[in-house]
Predict the structure.
Amino acid sequence: MKIRQLTELVKSGVVQPQDAFSSVFADCESLADALKLRKLWSINASLKSHTIERGEGVRIAVTGSGTLDYLAELIGDALCYEGVEAAVYTSSFGEYVSDLMNEASSLWSFDPDFVVFVTDGSRLWESASLTNTAEETEDWIRKDIELLDRLVSCPSGRSCQFLALNALPPDAAFPGSLRVSQPGSAWRFVQRWNQELVDVLGERAFIIDLFFEAARVGLNTALNKRQWFESKVPFDLDFHVKVAQLASAALKNARTADKKVLVVDCDNTIWGGVVGDDGIDGIELGSTSSRGQAYAAIQSHLLRLKDAGMLLAVASKNQMETVEAVFSDHPEMVLRPEDVVSMKVNWEPKADNIAAMAIDLNLGLESFVFLDDNPAEIEIVRQFLPSVSTIQASEDPVETLQVLLDSPLLFRNSLTQEDADRTEQYRSEVGRKQLETSVSNYDDYLRSLEMSADVNAISDLTVPRAAQLINKSNQFNLTTIRRTEVELKSLSEDQGWNIFLIRLSDRFGDHGIISIVLTKVRGPVLEVDTFVMSCRVLKRGVEQLVVNTLIDIAKMHGCTEVLGCYRPTKKNSIVASLYEDLGFSHSETSAKEDRFVLQVADYQPFDHHIAVNPAELGD
């Protein structure tokens, strides 16, 4: 939907769903369009009987060099359209150093969940000099990033995540070879500064690559000298919209689970033509034509998404043997059968096939994205499976490729080994489902899985996966306390804390790390700060294994009680009764949480069907 269509519908009194606004904002290219959308949102919200869906609240501080009010407001708008209720703080011009360094500043008093840091490229350009040697340039950059490293840190006792925008190069520089040959040129200076930013801050801040985005749209479009000289606005006003789109996508992605499955149609989507009519040799794919090359490029991008952790599935109205033959035998097919976790090729409604995939893979429909060239198929899925996100493929495969490259639905902030192994993990889920239907009872099913687990203390190698689980798990998450990688590393070195992770495998394959638990010793009490688990291993005995491990840790520290807390959110109701189901007694209720206690002396270990390898839980 375009903003013109949305305007006509809203002004005629037709209430529009929230996702219509997020979709239109993602396509906005100017500040004028973004402001028009803001006005439409207000009108839409005021229409009779319309209720805006509200998500979890988030507090965002926007700081850095330059005047940032436009950017802060646009980020707030974008998150609002996504159902995220955002409170936004903006540093005053020139105050970012004092705001970040002073623990009593207005910024830290605001208590942000996220801090967005904006770098003004002109500060770097003015510090560059063609006469500087490589050593002098490196020394200046190192000292500047060291200061930024100190600034981009949460005060003690606070928990927040940073997003850092890298710097834009100058839109005018010395012509000819000096721009690229001299280490002190502004162009090379900014590139080197950006690389040092990633090297130093990449593990504890999300880096948003504005340099790349400016290269796509053109520096003369991204920057505006007059606006900078007159009001110190760091980007052209229209480019603010693109920056807000990127920042809001990163912010939303940092707190919500990634889309896990991309379901693709075949005909005129990942190859050209209709294979049932044209035959395997007649479809457009590969070097035979320019369109065929574009379709191959689409498949190559899908393969890159798979490598980043996205599961690929196929839903096509075709004969199964025909589609299988293309995947297996076509010489220029990039995707192969082993790259796909589920293939539903039949004449049933695609909405039904996607719903069946969700059951087969044990994933919620909100994890799915559907790509199809047929507007009718897209609309049917929207109507019958509103939780599934959709992407409309174009008749032009080059446009489809660009849509996939730009789609915030496919955004990723991080990559772990579990992401890289995800396709194989979920392909094995089909075998588990078949086994479950073949046994007479659930206990026999668990036994026949031949499960084994490693229970180990957190390490530098497992911190990224631990942070990913903590920040993206919303359903099986008892307290929804979020932790950064830096915080996890710091807590792992604190003698009063124990952090352990569980890796689960069975006869069908390795699930990877599926649970993380943080505990704190408080005198005679072992307090469970965080208990997170992947829902795909729910009710397989991991919950019981966790409690057995908690008792072992309590005994190791001489604790007499284990205390667990449940803080309800809109998404974690599935664990509301977990502690009581595991033998804890309800002890206290407050406005924010319920508390449960388990006596160590009275505890009888749970039986389960998981063979536990010798644990390494630390001291």
User: Anything to note?
Assistant: The longest helix spans residues 237-255. Residues 149 and 200 are 7 Å apart (CA to CA).
